[in-house]
Design a protein that fits this description.
mainly alpha; Hypothetical protein af1432; two-stranded antiparallel ribbon
Length: 451
């Protein structure tokens, strides 16, 4: 690994700056996040299986806690395998804060809820769950009037899984040129074409500029003369014909590894424990890959599945996979950046990458895409669409006064953006109750306050 410079006093000062002009420690960020309404609402949002379907299933909140725990273990692993970049690794408080907020922008009903909101917003700056996370943290959060949660620069940088604005991806991706539809009419029954690109929302362009403002270094080994901050937001990869952001910070890459592990392993455990898939199906599809990655005998694989199916809820099985995947992570250097916060990147080793991709593919194809899950998600999608249509038709009459005031008080506020912010903040239960209030004759009361 190339020699990595140690962080300077100026580096530490830049990381701890906030948009309000003050500075803070990362424990400050963590405390604000845990105390926020957006964090609490994660307990009422779908991870894969609908909230309330069974108490065993993970919600967005329990998933988030597991991601944070896995990320701290990855950081601990990195401290043991290489000393060159030790001073650049995030503290436990910092990586936990980043992981705690990584999903707070996701709406009710999983990715179908996300598609439903993007259907309405694609001509109004777009909607994407990760982009909404930054919007909550820097604009909508309750801790300040102008700066949302007013978190430190490094924490916010660590949340940027996809640090490219929607308008840039819309220009580059031909699949984002949508066919015309009647905004006041009934939405199409299939809104898969409105799957949003992985991006930041155009409304947070000023925030992105502030976050990257200090990073004006130019990498000596790069021939194009681009500053770090420009390269960070201007480089894309083409994945199956779709352009996606190429870069992220060291902290964001650690968070993403932990998220992938939780998605692939924990959600597999849920499905096994609740009988949605069988040990035999797992064995037939994943035995070879997992045994190769973990260097485990096939007999041991079968023994773990058989023993845990009777008594241990598959926890030993999933814990062993998680531990092995953590050990198969590493940090590499991208030589096109000067600042180590951008040039250092965490990733899986090749054998682990194959394993995690197979796990995620299996969970998606056999669990998420199953009719049992999709019919519930589709219902959620229709709930979001019908609520949005109603509120957009009569925002001054149907929105809570505190929400409709935002449209009246500032003519710069796009009506659709205000409605989108309102709906995307709802838990599954809140969205269902509002839908019933609007459309079910015997539901709703003037004595039940609007959220």
């Amino acid at each position: 690994m190339p020699i990595i410079r140690e962080p300077t006093t100026e580096d530490h000062q830049i990381w701890k700056q906030r948009r309000s002009g003050q500075s803070a420690e990362f424990t400050f960020d963590k405390g604000r996040i845990i105390g926020s309404a957006a964090f609490r609402r994660l307990q009422g949002k779908t991870q894969i299986h609908p909230v309330g379907e069974h108490d065993f299933f993970r919600t967005r909140l329990t998933h988030t806690l597991e991601v944070a725990q896995t990320a701290t273990r990855i950081v601990d692993h990195f401290t043991k395998i290489n000393r060159e970049y030790l001073e650049w690794l995030p503290s436990h408080a910092l990586i936990e804060a980043i992981c705690y907020v990584h999903d707070i922008g996701h709406p009710a009903f999983g990715h179908n809820g996300e598609r439903a909101l993007h259907y309405f917003m694609h001509d109004h700056g777009g909607f994407e769950g990760n982009g909404q996370t930054l919007r909550i943290l820097t604009k909508l959060g309750e801790f300040s009037a102008q700066n949302g949660f007013d978190l430190t620069r490094r924490t916010l940088l660590g949340t940027l899984k996809y640090p490219v604005l929607y308008k840039l991806l819309k220009q580059k991706n031909s699949n984002l040129t949508y066919s015309e539809r009647n905004m006041q009419g009934i939405a199409p029954l299939d809104i898969d074409p409105w799957t949003p690109p992985k991006c930041l929302l155009d409304t947070e362009e000023d925030v992105l500029d502030w976050l990257l403002e200090p990073f004006t270094e130019v990498c000596a080994s790069a021939s194009d003369g681009l500053m770090d901050k420009d390269r960070f937001v201007m480089c894309f990869i083409n994945h199956n014909g779709e352009h996606k952001p190429q870069h992220k910070t060291l902290d964001a890459s650690i968070m993403e590894l932990a998220d992938d592990i939780a998605y692939g392993v924990s959600d597999l455990e849920d499905a096994l424990a609740m009988g949605l898939i069988t040990p035999q199906e797992v064995s037939e599809s994943l035995k070879e890959t997992i045994c190769t990655c973990l260097k485990m005998s096939e007999d041991r694989f079968d023994q773990l599945l058989d023993e845990n199916s009777r008594s241990k809820g598959f926890k030993q099985f999933s814990s062993l996979i998680t531990y092995s995947l953590i050990r198969l992570t590493d940090v590499k250097v991208d030589g096109s950046f000067s600042n180590p916060l951008f040039s250092l990147r965490a990733g899986f080793k090749p054998e682990a990458l194959q394993c995690i991709e197979e796990l995620k593919k299996f969970v998606y194809n056999r669990v998420i895409s199953s009719p049992a899950v999709q019919t519930i998600e589709y219902k959620g999608q229709r709930i979001i669409i019908e609520i949005f249509n109603a509120l957009a038709a009569k925002p001054d009459k149907l929105l809570p006064l505190s929400v409709s005031h935002k449209i009246k008080a500032d003519t710069q506020n796009d009506k659709y953006r205000v409605i989108c912010d309102y709906i995307s903040s709802m838990t599954d239960s809140e969205a269902c109750k509002l839908h019933a209030r609007l459309f079910t004759p015997d539901q709703g009361s003037i004595f039940i306050p609007m959220a």
